[in-house]
Amino acid sequence: MKHMKLITGLIGIILGVIIAFFVPTPAGLTHAGMIVLASIVTANIFWIFSVIPSFVTGLLMLCSWVVLKAVDFPTSFNIFSTTTMWIIIGGLALGAAAIKTGLINRIALKIMSYLPASFRGQSLALLIAGTVISPMIPSAHPKSAMSTPIAKGISDSLGYKPKSKASSGMFMAAIWGFIVMEASFLSATAQNYAFKGLLPVKYQGVLTWGKWFIMMLPWTIVTLVLGYLLLNVLFKPKNDKPISKDFIHQQLQKMGPMSREEKITAVVILVAIVFWILGSAIKLEAAITALIGVSVLVSAKVLTADDFKTKISWNTIIFIGTVMALGNVMKTVGLTTWLYKILQPVINPILSNIWITVIALPIVIYLCKFVVVSLISTGTLIMLCLLPFFSTISFNPALLVLIITTSVNIWMLNYMDAPVITGQAAVQGSMVSKSGLAKSSLGYMVINIIGLLLCVPVWYMMGLVH
User: How far is CA 340 from the centre of its chain?
Assistant: First the structure.
């Protein structure tokens, strides 16, 4: 494996050097554009094959633009001073508090206690709990690591054998609720902010918390309802009679009454979500809301200075920042204009009509996922290819962010979805079978397109399609 990383890393560097310094600059592109193009090729090879940590690759890419004089330092690192970066930092800190205090576990277990202790009841509980919790934590891996052990406890208490149909179904219900439904809310995952950040500023205003929720509401309803039916068709055991909910009650008893820290965190997150919804109406930046919320949690000693060191994924923040820098720099060096001419014959048919786009673009993304594993890297590559076409398409380019964020999250094969891998690691690979992964992912891929198609009339009513 080490040799494979070394070989692919060398190939990436050699290709970058050749493109930057030996390939003649095509008509319509500057040498600065060639340097940025070369860095993108090298960086993507490093990201695909995990040659070095993703955030290090991103930082080296930004540094290479400055060292090789493609752009100056302020242009290269401009993204780190934007509101998008601060909302990501603030959101991750709020999520860290929700996990640290046990608030998330309590909400999930409480919802489960209201539904029957059967496959139908508890799979529905996991879907609902995940959807409710999603906007509180903008990071998939903690949600995956937290939800799948709960699903395992339920599966064991219901008497399901490891990797049986029913056990696989409980695992996938956790993934579906806590990870898949992230696309419903802007604040549910950092990748939503990353893809939004790749848009030109004039289009980003469309994607406020409230508008995102409304634009995705048909998809949310369809994905929840059809997802629940799909999991029951694929995985429900023949004998699905309810049993005692002792496991759930025992877990709640262990937690004891709601602590002071949980109550403060719950209030802060609830108030933050309300202000995110009202943000555009009251002219308050989402980042300010998040940072004030974090300040309250620190002042109330819910979060400490050490928590900022250990409970916030700074490498993820840096990686997202370096990825978002690409859009502005590509435009600055003229790479978007050049790519438009090159990609026009392929991209124009896909973007010619919104109805075609919501069918064809997800399929293209599904195919890309077999090669580019990282969710953010896949979405970034697609956005960069589409960026030159924003001024010519018949709908608001912000809609592409919604299509991309729902479509990158597939798990046909074990390696294709990092949060699913995290979930499997959290239960020592004892719950879901390979066939269970493949069947549920294929079902989601179809449901996703149906959900997006049903969103189109809403997008028309909102004036986002011309």
Answer: 27
pLDDT at 142 over 90: no
Instruction: Give the span between the Cα atoms of 125 and 108, in whole angstroms.
Output: 8
- 310-346: b (≥16 Cβ within 10 Å) or e: ebbbeebbbbbbbbbbbbbbbebbebbebbbeeeeee
> Measuring CA to CA, how many Å separate 97 from each of 41, 94, 140?
38, 5, 15
What angle do the packed helices 260-282 and 83-100 form, to 10 degrees? Answer: 160
Question: Tell me: the pLDDT tens digits for 91-115?
Answer: 889 988 988 998 988 998 899 889 9
Residue with tokens 């094959």: 49
pLDDT of residue 1: 57
Spatial CA neighbour of 443 closest among 233, 230, 237: 230
Nearest to 275 by CA among 68, 49, 87, 465: 87
Q: How far apart are CA 65 and CA 363, in angstroms?
A: 33
Note the pLDDT tens digit of each residue in 443-457.
999 999 999 999 999
Residue 318 pLDDT more than 70?
Answer: yes
Of 313, 320, 368, 338, give the one whose Cα is nearest residue 99. Answer: 313
Per-residue pLDDT reduced to its tens digit, 189-232: 888 988 998 898 889 989 999 999 999 999 999 999 999 999 99
Do 85 and 321 form a contact (C-beta atoms < 8 A)?
A: yes
Cα Rg of the chain (Å, integer) = 22
Tokens of 396: 């608001």
